[in-house]
Amino acid sequence: MGQHILDSTFDAIFGLNLAWEINYCNKAGCDLLGYSATELIGRNYKEFFKDCENQGFENIVETLLFNESLKPIRTDYINKEKKRRAASIQYSPIKDQNGKISGISSIVRLVSQYEKANSKAQALLETAPDAMVIVNKAGEIVLINAQTEKLFGYKKEELLGKEVELLIPDKFLKYHRANRSKYTSKPKTRNMGQGMELYGKKKSGKNFPVEISLSPLETEEGMLVSAAIRDITKRKKVEKELEKYNQQLQNKNKELEQFAYIASHDLQEPLRNVLSFTGLLKENYSTELDEMGLKFMYFITEATTRMSLLIKGLLDYSRIGSNTKLESVDCNVVLAMVQDDFDPLIKETNAVIKVSELPIIWGYEVEIKLLFQNLIGNAIKFRDPNRPAEISVSASKEEGDWKFCVSDNGIGISPEYKEKIFIIYQRLHAGKDYEGTGIGLAHCRKIVDLHGGKIWMESELGKGSKFYFTIHEITSA
Ligand code: ADP
Fold first, then answer.
1. How far is CA 243 from CA 211, 231, 233, 269, 412, in A?
2. The Histidine kinase domain covers which part of the protein (predicted)?
3. Residue nearest to atom 4 of ligand 1 (CA)
4. Which of 320, 421, 444, 458 best tests ligand 1's pocket when mutated (most atoms within 8 Å of CB)?
């Protein structure tokens, strides 16, 4: 009866003495190794079974002699056809009538390929930074990693074998089920729900924003789908805050621009009065003033004229970008106009301007002209007194943007002023050396900003400067 039971079990069972010689083998054991019982009995078990993972055969005997229990051990065995297979083996002690250990029993269970692959996959999954959920074609969860347990608040046992929709908020369930079957019929690696906001559902019922990328896995058991799930709650929060600050900043900017416009506009009126009354004073009372009085009058006129220029600059600055229309702008034409405007100055100073072929861009023509006017005007103004100005204007395409360069051989700018020169009213020279209000480059920066580009400068003191700016292609609405 006992023998019958042992022969009808699917597990291979071996009886071994303490020297690992086989003294018993059931039918499943014979089938496993491919030998008959008579061929196996008397042979050493170690001929067939490999040394186990971390447990040598000696350790197994020792552990059993100390009456300690052993967990099933994964190892390989080699059958009659010299094929290597994986098995899980339970070793237990065989005791005689006196309770003394006289041998070892080995119960061998085959590890299927699937199980083997699974354990490898599990090890891999645990190294992933994201929560990983692997689902079969029926939508049942077959594998998850520890990150999934942490993120969703479920224990592994609560998820394995369950429908993956357990992790999805109720209002997306229908949509998810429909799209799941669509995906399995045409699987490819991709982000899930492109352009959609995706959410996961924790065990507590709380929904949270996620980003999911899907990949199909071909296995012997059919197609599986792996989903890498990333919690983007923090990112969403930061994005929202950024959006809020951006809006606040835009509002503040608008307010400031309006303020600058109103202030500069309204300041012009009393200033015009001062200018015209000092003009009248000069005309009608200059004979009554002594030399000192005339000098003072001259200072007043100088200062008010300068103030008027400064205010006009500010007014122009606040007007940039308003009341203009986007159009295609041929920069070659613009440059020709700018050169025309500067013609008398070019002749007077013997400046040479070389212009390469420039692109046609989509922009604000008046502003683009002002931009080149300021840069070329500065290049002539800040020329080296010992040589005529040589200026070149060129453009190249870079990562979809046009990158322009206006270079000169002028006095140059020290690197520490790289940023400062673009700030409104910032000048590096006294008015008596070079005329100006310090607003030209601020204009340039605002114009380039308006076109979605960047402006910067590279220079070597005494040798010349290169002003670069990019124009981001603005597409028409
Ligand atoms: P402005 O020309 O009215 O002084 P900008 O804003 O155009 O004001 O220029 C700011 C400062 O940057 C100038 O005062 C000058 O010191 C410096 N700068 C601008 N362009 C050049 C250049 N091409 N070469 C040397 N210095 C320059």
1. 20, 20, 15, 40, 40
2. 262-475
3. 438
4. 421
